[in-house]
Amino acid sequence: MQMQASVGISPETTDALRQGIRRSQDFLLSIQKEDGHWEGELLVDSTLCSDTVLYMNWRGRVDEVLQAKCADHIRRRQTADGGWNIFIGGPSEINASVKAYFGLKLAGDSPNAPWMREARANILRLGGIPQVNTYCRLYLALLGQFPWDYVPTIPPEIFLFPHWFFFNLHEMSSWSRTIIAPLAILNHYRPTRTLPASLHLHELYPAGMENADFSLKKDKRFWAWRNFFLRCDALLKIYNRIPIHPLRKHALKRAEEWMTERMGEGSDGLSAIFPSMLNSLMALQALGYAEDHPLVQKAEADFAGLFVHDPADFRIQPCLSPVWDTAITTVALGESAVPRNHPSLQKAAAWLEAREVRFAGDWTARNPGVEPSGWAFEHANKYYPDTDDTMMVLMALRHCAAPDPKAREEIHRRALKWLLSFQCNDGGWAAFDKNLNAAWLEHVPFADHNAILDPTCSDLTARVLELLGYIGHDPRLPEVRQAISMLRRTQEADGSWYGRWGVNYIYGTWQALRGLASIGVNMDEEWIRRALTWLESCQNEDGSWGETCESYNFPALKGRGAGTPSQTAWALMGLCAAGDSHSESIQRGIHWLVSTQNADGSWTEDYTTGTGFPCVFYLKYDMYRNHFPLLALATYRKLIG
User: Fold this and answer.
1) How much is the pLDDT for 456?
2) Non-local CB neighbours of 176 within 8 Å, separated by 6+ positions
3) What's the number of CA atoms in the CB half-sphere (13 Å) around residue 636?
4) Phi, psi of 374 (to 5 degrees)
5) Were 195 and a residue from 83, 85, 199, 222 both cysteine, which residue would form a disulfide, CB within 3.0 to 4.6 Å?
C-alpha cells in the first residue's frame, strides 16, 4: 500500500489490475493445446477463398461443397459500396474485387444478381481488369480472361543464374522466391483453361476487352529502372516466341527440382504459405504430375490444412502461426509472474525446443558458415526459419525453468549466435535473409506485390535489442551500437518509427522504445522524448490507441484509428519503457484495457492489426487481442512495483 500511495495508484486500480491479469492468465492457460503450444487463427481478406475457387475451376475438378463454402465466405465480405477490401473496414481494392466477382461467377452467381451488379459497378469505378496487378493478371490468364502477352514474364532461366550474377534468385525475398518458382513454370507452359462464354469477364473491361490498354505504366523519365525492366520484359517475350531455347529445358528442370525439394519432408507445403502452396499445386499439374503422385497428395493435404471448417463461416488461413503464438503467450505469462516451473510453461518450452530448425536452409546463400539454428513461424518450414520468431522464442525460454540447464544453455548459445549473424550492413535485422536490399529490384514488372525485398526493419532491430538487454549483453559491443544507430537514422521527424510487421507506427514506435530501454539507453534523451510525446498525442478520447492499415498508404493517418486491445497494449508498453508511472496517458490506457476485458478474461478486437505486405496484404492475428494486453498489464504492474 505504501508503494501504491507513492506512485498515486489507488487500491481500486491495483485490485482491478490484479484481477485483470489473473483472468487473462486463466483464459490463456485454458486454451493451450494438449502438447503445450498455442495457436490462434490468422484471419485475412476474401482473396484466399476467391483464389481457391479460381484454382478448382482451372484444374477442371471442382469440389462443389468447398466451392459453395468459399462463395458464401466471399458474399459475406462484400462491402457497402459493392467491392471487397483487404483489411477490416478498409476501402474497396481492385484485385480483391475482381477475384471475388470472378469467383462468385464461377460458383454460379448470375451477373444480374443485385450484389453482382453492385460489384461490377464498383470494379469499373476502380478502372476494371486493366488495373489489376501481376499475380491477378496471371490467374486471369490461366482462365483465358487476360492476354498472356501482357502478363509480365517470369523466365525459368532465373534458376540458372549464379549467385555472383547481379540478378539472381537470392537477391529476392524468401517469399518471392517460393511464389516465383511455380509461376515461372506456369509462365512457360501457359496451361490455359477454356471457359464457356457465359463465364467470361468482358463486362469488367471499361472499354471492352478488345479496346483495353493492358500495357504496364512506364516511368516518365527515360532513364529509369522501371523502363529498363519493361524493355527487358519486351525482349523476353520476343525470346519466348523463338522456337529454340537452348537453356529452357534445363531451367525448367532446375525450377522443378528447386520447388519440389522445398515441398517435401520438413515443410508443410512450399514455404508453408498459401500463395506458394497454391501456385505449386498448379505447377505440378502443368508439369504432368498424376493426381495420385505422393507429392501431389502431400501438397493437397498441406493446402487443406489451411482450411477452417467453421459451420457459420468457412475460412482459409494464409499460413499457421503456432511458434509465434506460443512464444509471445509464454512471454506474456512469464512476465505476468506465472512461475517458471508452472506445468504449462514447461510444456510450452519443451514444444518450442523441439522445433528448433537445425537444417541449413535458403538463408545460407547470403549468410554462409553459420551453425544452423532458429525457429520458423509455422509447424514445419525447415528451409525458412526467421529472425523474429527466433528472438521471441529466446525471450520465451527465459521464463521457463530448464529440466536440463546445460542443454538449454547450448540451445541459447547456438540460436543467439545464429541470430546475431544476420545483422546487416546498416546495423539492422531483416526477417529471413541478410543484406537483401537491392532497391532497383522493386521496379521489376512482376514485383508489384510490394515485397520482392526483405529489408532491415526498425521493429525487428529493436526486438533484438530487447532480447540482448534481457540477457545482459554488453551494450558497448559493436552490434549494439550499430543497431542503436540504425534506429536513430530510421526515426521519423515526429518521433515515431515505421512498423513493418504490425500496424503500423504504433507498432514500430512501441518496439523501438521497449528495445532501447531494455539495452539501457537513457530514456530522457530528446529523441526518445519525441517518440513518447508522439505516442501520447495519438491516444483516443476513451484512453485507447488504434491505427488504420491505411496509414501505410497515407502517412497522415499514422497513429489514428478506432481503439484496439493489441494497439493499446503496444502504446502502453512503449510509454512504460520511459518508467513514468505517473503518466496520465498510461493511467487512462490501463483503465481502458481493464474495463474492456471480457468476463472470461479475453478481449474483443474488431480490426486488422497485423501486416503481411504493406499496402497489399494484412492479417488479423486472433491471439494479439489476448496475449499483448496481458503483457502490457504485466509491464505496468512491474513499473508500479
Assistant:
1) 96
2) 447, 449, 451, 452
3) 35
4) 100, 175
5) 199
